[in-house]
Amino acid sequence: MVRPLKEILKEELGNEASRAYGSFDLIGDLAIIRVPDGFQDKLEIVGNALMKLNKSIHGVWAQVGPVEGDYRIRKLMHVAGEERSVTVYRESGCRFELDITAVYFSPRLAHERLRIAQLVSDGETVFNMFAGIGTFSIIIAKRKRVIVHSSEINPAAYQYMARNIELNKVKERVIPYLRDACDVSAQLHGKVDRVLMPLPEKALEFFSCALRSLRSSGWIHVYMHVPYLKGESAADAAAKSSASITSGKVVNTIIVREVGPRLLQVVHDVVI
Ligand SMILES: C[S@@+](CC[C@H](N)C(=O)[O-])C[C@H]1O[C@@H](n2cnc3c(N)ncnc32)[C@H](O)[C@@H]1O
Question: Is 210 helix (H, G, I), strand (E, B) or coil?
């Protein structure tokens, strides 16, 4: 996709085309592009070029600010095509309706969500502390006979999670809560086999709440952001970050993706 997009852009932008990002997020029929400095007035051209290349894209949005706030929402601006922010995204045989301007969502975690679903065994009680629109929870519940307690504090994300539970017919397996994860962990005290903590900015802060929800043994999947310095390898930085987990044993550390310049998203699989 990189070469053809830049080639099309070259017709309109000349040499400046080389500054455009070749990659983008595709969520349902909406694309999200990133904006190089000084490119703001060319976004419509990029958006139209993308739709020309990929006929299944019906609307293009640009990310104009970082992911921020308690709800982890990215600031988006419509640049081309239909001015609609609600779409249906498909992953691992499931369908997810969402509003890209109102909830956190990244298609780049698809591989990780499937990895976790494959680790879960029938009969487990799972607690997804930061459930978003229910992606991890529903993919797990579609594949395994489990109960997945799923807490979320963003009302819009909670509404979409409830809708997606219906869409994917997992009402008996996924229990949504519009409540703080720690609050729900108190209710689940000692009843959970596996905890997911997909909120890298706060995973360590909530770790004691995750522990409280677990039975005497179980698993916690801790997502973290890990910077790495010049001269340091990403793998070393990821491995070193496991030292911040002071309970249980880290049996596996994986680099999920690069989320910024010299910044990794890492997951530690911790057995308690
Ligand atoms: C990175 S997103 C989760 C993405 C989701 N796991 C997925 O794969 O699509 C983190 C979510 O945690 C929610 N959140 C933040 N603080 C929370 C809290 N204290 N309790 C429950 N949910 C929280 C945010 O609103 C956001 O939707």
Answer: helix
